[in-house]
């Protein structure tokens, strides 16, 4: 480990120690969800880490993960995926959870925030890319089971989508996120997790998630 890595690890350790010292008082009520705040600085906890990764091959095709243009867009077919083990790790060491609003993409940095539009029914959803894939041919995106439900293609299993990188929201997340936080800490403070942050973005941008939650709330009244 070189000097830079040692300093970086010390800074991360210091930030985490501040976070743990202030729990659970750092969780404050926001308009739609609760998020972490220390000295007016919003902090989001993640098990995973920032990763671009090296080139890799799937079905004979080489993919080269990289930084992309701020206005990156892509159209193609998406499917949804699940894991046999609920504790399976994603490509950036996050824990895969089929109920979270996440996705797997061939090249986008992890994490990245994307807006996905189901071109067959116009439903929209904001997701966080934290994995690599899809591993099936002629697919551009794998979406969590919950994401597929909200986008309305859980039964057919595949749909044509438009992917748009939300560059500004991605940069905001990277400025707020604390990586490599133990799962046990996040479980106790789930309202400070990346999943709740992504859900809050869906509420803010009034995606299909927003309208489905609004509809469910009205049913309960």
From TrEMBL:
Entry keywords, A to Z: Cell wall biogenesis/degradation, Lipoprotein, Lyase
Gene3D superfamilies xref list: RlpA-like domain (2.40.40.10)
Enzyme class, first EC level, given as a word: lyase
All residue ranges annotated as the RlpA-like protein double-psi beta-barrel domain in the record: 74-163
Pfam families referenced in this protein's UniProt entry, alphabetically: DPBB_1
GO biological processes: cell wall organization; peptidoglycan metabolic process
Enzyme Commission number(s) of this protein: 4.2.2.-
Listed GO MF terms: lytic endotransglycosylase activity
InterPro entries: RlpA, RlpA-like_DPBB, RlpA-like_sf, RplA
Function: Lytic transglycosylase with a strong preference for naked glycan strands that lack stem peptides.
Family: Belongs to the RlpA family.
Protein name: Endolytic peptidoglycan transglycosylase RlpA
Species annotation: Orientia tsutsugamushi (strain Boryong) (Rickettsia tsutsugamushi)
């Amino acid at each position: 480990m070189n000097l830079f890595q040692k300093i970086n690890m010390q800074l991360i350790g210091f930030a985490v120690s501040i976070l743990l010292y202030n729990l659970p008082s750092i969780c404050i009520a926001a308009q739609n969800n609760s998020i972490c705040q220390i000295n007016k600085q919003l902090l989001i906890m993640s098990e995973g880490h920032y990763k671009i990764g090296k080139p890799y091959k799937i079905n004979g095709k080489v993919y080269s993960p990289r930084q992309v243009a701020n206005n990156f867009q892509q159209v193609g077919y998406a499917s949804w995926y699940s894991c046999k083990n609920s504790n399976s790790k994603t490509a950036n060491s996050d824990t895969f959870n089929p109920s979270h609003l996440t996705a797997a993409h061939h090249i986008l940095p992890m994490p990245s925030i994307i807006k996905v539009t189901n071109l067959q029914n116009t439903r929209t959803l904001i997701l966080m890319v934290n994995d690599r894939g899809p591993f099936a041919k002629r697919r551009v995106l794998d979406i969590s089971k919950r994401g597929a439900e909200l986008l309305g293609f859980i039964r057919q299993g595949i749909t044509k989508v438009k992917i748009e990188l939300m560059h500004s929201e991605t940069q905001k997340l990277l400025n707020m996120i604390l990586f490599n936080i133990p799962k046990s800490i996040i479980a106790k403070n789930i309202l400070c997790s990346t999943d709740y942050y992504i859900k809050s973005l869906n509420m803010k941008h009034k995606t299909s998630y927003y309208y489905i939650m609004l509809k469910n709330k009205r049913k309960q009244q």
